[in-house]
Amino acid sequence: MRRVLVLGATSAIAQQVARLYADRGAELFLVARNEERLGAVADDLRVRGASVETAIADLDDPARHDELLARAAPLELVFLAHGVLGDARDTGGTAEAAEAVLRTDLLGPVSLLTRAAQRLEAQGSGCIAALSSVAGDRGRGSNLVYGAAKAGLTAFLSGLRNRLSGAGVRVVTVKPGFVDTPMTDHLPKNPLYASPERVARDVVRAIDTGADVVYTPWWWRFVMLAVRLIPERLFKRLSL
Amino acid sequence: MQPLESWGRYPPARQAAVSVHWRSDPLPRVHGTLLPFGQGRSYGDCCLNEGGTLLATSRLDRFIEFDPEQGVLRCEAGVRLGDILAFAVPRGFFLPVVPGTRFVSVGGAIANDIHGKNHFRAGTFGRHVRRLELLRSTGERAVCSPAANAELFAATVAGLGLTGLVTWAELQLRPVKGPFIEAETVPFRGLDEFFALDADSSERFEYTVAWIDPRPGDVRGLYFRGDHSERAGKPPSLRDPAALPLDLPDFAVSGPTVAAFNALYYARGRLRTSRKQVHYPPFFFPLDAVGSWNRVYGKRGLLQFQCVVQDRAAVSALLERIVSSGLRSSLGVLKTFGDVPSPGMLSFPRPGATLALDFPNRGAQTFALLDALESIVRDAGGALYPAKDARMSPASFAAAYPRAAGFERHVDPAFSSSFWRRVRAA
Fold first, then answer.
1. Helix (H, G, I), strand (E, B), or coil: what is residue A36?
2. Which residues pair with A126 in a beta bridge?
3. CATH code of A227's domain
4. Which ipTM value was assigned to this complex?
5. Local structure of residue A139 (DSSP, 8 states)
6. A41 touches B at CB < 8 Å
7. pLDDT tens-place string over residues A154-176
8. What does the radius of gyration of chain B's CA atoms come to, in whole angstroms?
9. At B370, which CATH number?
């Protein structure tokens, strides 16, 4: 992939993915909300060998989506990485907070990727890769809204892949487990945590090799298989 | 955040840790004092802050600007030296000073004003820092260089992280043709032979260092020397090595095990004396082949000892004392510093011979040896290296670092460390 559009370019995983493409001398179009931070990321990638364009945008605002995609055209690889975890107790508590998480983690991505898919379908080539999460594989009480948003995104990506399979456009669903990023800074760490570097290597390999759904690290596929097999009668009583 | 510890894993310390993700962010508001923490490669307590908060900088790992004509690189302070080499070597540049591991951060290299195997030519790391930005607890961002804010610069280089958070630094790199080193290994016996070899080698080679094995009545060692090769070539890949997954039991570093290791290492070195071309990582960073090698020393950790003394007699007194203690060290290093002036108020390198050894933490036995070595160094007018130290007394520190009082004026009132409180205790 020579051209990469990175949505949520200041996220820890996106930075590492972009570095791997910068090493290949790619053309990057970076979108993020915070100008100072995006500038720091863009400078880093330029030094590493990428040619970089940037746009400041709040991706929660669908009115910006068409304009951003037009500026980033021609699209080749669209990598969607933005998202928020939300505070589980708050979102469990207030409907407003839950709606904000759904807007960022589901509505925004669906709007962006629908528009991107139309463009890619029209040109008959390209690839969409998006960060979903193992949290979308089964709802848990500790992050139910985040899990619901990611479950929705996973299903959307699966449907998009199905619809675009004949059109020469690939869709890659990335499901990271726990990753050591600013999003999880406040949580105590355990050996299940992976580095953003590790996740990024898996993402790029999945895009290179044509995988459809990739768990990262790989063993999460089996962890989540086991988690999904627990009967609901039992599952509802677990503290997860 | 994971609980953080120093490389020697001694002393243990309890402290909070906060990651710094963006150089544009203000310092976090915390209870107690702050201390920047890079890669945790300082051995003792100069990277610890018992009861306070560590500012983890590993995510300040971005490049900012590179001038391929002049070889000037500006980057954030959490960038590791190995990442700079991976970037710079294919572009024809090398760091002017590298320590024994590539897993140290730029901020740590500045804060300890580290030295390499070419001290007699290049001086310390701080000499090659053109500028740096210091974020103080007042919110002020001071750009410091040998010309601007010169005093604050001299306090921050070798300043042990106490003057504030270095957010970025601008480094002058040096040109190289490729990734290879023309390396030679020369076995020697006795200190006289070492010093003769060293005097001769310093004239002809850029990098020199000796591995030593102090034994009763004798010291033997391998003298390594090398130069950057003129040969171009593809740089080696620099993946992080597999880490030792567990703490080894005490017998892993017992006397007989270490003696056997040293005998094998010496014998192997004697068989490989010819000149040969090697990639730069095994020449500069042999220990990096195993991640977390400090776990060899078990849960109780290790204590490093590194001093510089001018007097050769003091070097032999130190070695004799070590031999008579019955403790053996497998990572003994002896080299000489030149007279290139160090830029920091608290810089360790000064003319003389520098001896570094590590000892497993065996409690009282190890502490007694370190105390004895410390008094030999103090009597000889030498200095211990804060980056390696967990034990030195306030008196030894004051004697070896006469500029500490002047330095103290530049310490940020919101910053402190376990080391600083220990050596400045009344």
1. helix
2. A169
3. 3.40.50.720
4. 0.93
5. -
6. yes
7. 999 999 999 999 999 999 999 99
8. 20
9. 3.30.70.260
